[in-house]
Amino acid sequence: MPQLYSFGLGIGTTNSNGEWLEVYYPQPLLEPGEDISNAVCQALNHSEGNQAITLDKDKLTALADALESVHAELAALARRFQESKRPTVATLLATDAAPSSVPEGYLKLHMLSHRLVKPHGTNLTGLFGVLPNVAWTNQGAIDIKELPERQLQARLNDEVLEVACVDKFPKMSNYVVPGGVRVAHTARVRLGAHLGEGTTVMHEGFVNFNAGTEGPGMIEGRISAGVMIGAGSDLGGSSSTMGTLSGGGKLINGVGKECLIGANAGIGIPLGDRCIVEAGLYVTAGTKVAMLDSDGKVAAYVKARELAGKSDLLFWRNSQTGAVECKTNLASFELNEELHKNN
Amino acid sequence: MPQLYSFGLGIGTTNSNGEWLEVYYPQPLLEPGEDISNAVCQALNHSEGNQAITLDKDKLTALADALESVHAELAALARRFQESKRPTVATLLATDAAPSSVPEGYLKLHMLSHRLVKPHGTNLTGLFGVLPNVAWTNQGAIDIKELPERQLQARLNDEVLEVACVDKFPKMSNYVVPGGVRVAHTARVRLGAHLGEGTTVMHEGFVNFNAGTEGPGMIEGRISAGVMIGAGSDLGGSSSTMGTLSGGGKLINGVGKECLIGANAGIGIPLGDRCIVEAGLYVTAGTKVAMLDSDGKVAAYVKARELAGKSDLLFWRNSQTGAVECKTNLASFELNEELHKNN
Amino acid sequence: MPQLYSFGLGIGTTNSNGEWLEVYYPQPLLEPGEDISNAVCQALNHSEGNQAITLDKDKLTALADALESVHAELAALARRFQESKRPTVATLLATDAAPSSVPEGYLKLHMLSHRLVKPHGTNLTGLFGVLPNVAWTNQGAIDIKELPERQLQARLNDEVLEVACVDKFPKMSNYVVPGGVRVAHTARVRLGAHLGEGTTVMHEGFVNFNAGTEGPGMIEGRISAGVMIGAGSDLGGSSSTMGTLSGGGKLINGVGKECLIGANAGIGIPLGDRCIVEAGLYVTAGTKVAMLDSDGKVAAYVKARELAGKSDLLFWRNSQTGAVECKTNLASFELNEELHKNN
Hints:
Chain A is of the alpha/beta class. The first copy, chain A, folds into three domains: 6-130, Alpha-Beta Plaits, CATH 3.30.70.2010; 135-167, Wheat Germ Agglutinin (Isolectin 2), domain 1; 172-341, 3 Solenoid (UDP N-Acetylglucosamine Acyltransferase, domain 1), CATH 2.160.10. Chain A is built from seven helices and 27 strands. In chain A, the strands form six sheets. A seven-stranded mixed β-sheet of chain A has the order 17-20-22-26-27-24-25, with no helix packed on it. In chain A, strand 24 and strand 25 (298-303) form a beta hairpin. In chain A, helix 1 (34-43) packs antiparallel against helix 2 and helix 2 (57-67) packs antiparallel against helix 3. Chain A is elongated, with a radius of gyration of 23 Å. Chains in contact: A-B, A-C, B-C. At the A-C interface, helix 3 and strand 9 of A face helix 6, strand 8 and strand 24 of C.
């Protein structure tokens, strides 16, 4: 029997047709190893492939019994699930194939936000097509087709039905808040974001799924889908990282270590380490950049895309000539110590 | 008896003095036609003008009976309203006059968000003066003057009183979510926004009242009051459309079809179709633009306001000279197909 | 017995170890005067220093009795606190020393948001270190360590546990909404913000703690920690004020009266009165600025930091040469009258 790629015991929400809208996995596992894989597969009669198995009380008992000696915590979770009237599911991924169901998609998003894998570390092909559009409310996830009737009924009942989000992706914080982070406004971080320890996402920060930070870092700008920010790098307020979903093309954008993207700045190319982009400057792949020598004279002109991934660069717009210039970053910049040590 | 311009059967919230704070219309009607107009006006003894009539159980019965044969759904709604202890109202607009009460103002905002009219399609003159400032909370709409006592009492009762918004306008999604849209963070779309089918408003997107999209489109920037975005146009993250309320003057700003406003870019002039504004560039009405010929040479200098409404323009800032330049947009750009087809 | 610097009667939340997570002071006092100081200190046996005293029913009775003749409202508050099962605290600050506990820190944040002091008007040294990171939820403040178990239990119970914020600072509006303001999206204004009367903070606006406005003003940009905006000044959408926490250095940034910072613009220097920064332009301290004379000719080049605090300046980037230019602002600009008179 093959070892599993991933396993999750989830509790979630279905619509009135019994179709999954979302699944919460309190403790997802990556490559759980032979003992757990065997216990789970035997208890659920799973032989091969990726599968999401809806659980009833008998299956939960079988799972709990099988897991008792190999993963006591998961066994306890299976027993607690029995107390609940909500639908539960066991999702077994034999391989890292493209997700083919809501439970599979949610398990992969959990793996990212639980830091079990890094962005681009699990196969998310076709995820948009798998996930339904959901109304996320204070009464839980609601099928978008069932929303109008629910809204009317709530009003008649003198209740408030707050629709916080209408989207395929929920906010991360309602599923997991990884250790050592602050997220000042959680609606800005999607489930599937990867926030490294020591990351602070301020109110203006944003982190898409399959994107994130190594940590530590102060994120006040937008981390687009697919973009990873290295350790010690800060994104200034409203700064932009052009992602593949936003027209950034096939080059995977990203930021290395100890970089600073200024407020209202943006990048269309991946940066190496210790780079600085001046506040207000947007460097696109097509920007022609004047490379300055140590005397501040123009040594060459290059397209920004040729600088992709290079380190120790300082980009700014010459305030007298309007030219975008770049030199090797000699200036050190200090992250705010008080902020970072109190994450 | 004249036909009505609009009719709505609403259920809402009043303050402790019985003054309306907000009204929810599950099914607003535009120009409902002779039969419905007659049924409603006779049942409520309405002869002329615009009027909001508070409903008691008898009036609801009269309305339901009168509507039974001409609009069974509205008749059913009137009967369901009888079950509720919340205040209900029938709002009859004989003409498209400036709104003179909260129920009238809310009916017009609903008409926009229900796509019954487009931005600038209904008279909103003086709306700011008609709508009260309200605390929007998880316990419903609260008069701002009554908020401190409610906050204290909630604390004493061991309840959480979440004040999500203090504003004249509520969020759209708590009133209606039109078909075929996603709104990743609903606090960013005011009631009175018009979102066409296929519109995705991402976390950084914003849509004011009396503004919106034809759809489809990916909105990650700000659609100011009065601004309409054509079909197939995308607004990049934090991009700005200068509206009349924000100092943009009397010229109605807007964006045509299949345009792309880059991230952190902005426009102070209306664009025609298939225009592109480079990421990070703000084109104000007063910007002097160098018009390039097909050889890339400057053919003329024009103020951007002279380009208002023109199509097939590509704006960018020359990264070597700092000059704002424009040429006819020959490059085609593709919207992200996967995103758009899964709205 | 010395008069108190500040006094607050609070009701709050503790974690499972009895440690304070947050405190709500319905009516904080600044320099309450001799009679109140004496009444409070005697009732609580307080002799000197800054102290947060957890209250039981006996102490609440003693406080209420002592306050009856000198501050009837506070006395009534003390009696109402007796009805509640939540923990209550009396916080006495003899001096404006650095806050040394959660109740002290929260009292100071309340003083700012209640407009008892202005930004920089009370000592907040070391506040980041004093405040715990808290999960702010629809079930109240939750210790971040206790969150995972609470999330699981909520799911099992078929409840929604909404985690709105994971931060040291809560949103202001859940503690106080000062008179005459609108805050379109309250998650963007931290407790400790100071919003003057007539301030509207739009959806894109942001106000950090120890920062704010004199009012009136339309705030659609970000007011960083430590930054104060003068009366009648507007911040355009996504505009940025570089704060000391964001790398702005030791110079206290700020904006004088009747200024306009355009959309997507930013400042790294404090402005005087009646200054305008063109939409999309970021003026950092190091920007070299061409100063124009009345004929529009360059009279001198200066670093922007030399212009710090000066009035009547108009900054823009020359759209033909890319140079940052500045002249004395002769153009008057009108705030939108309808908006401002309806705050």
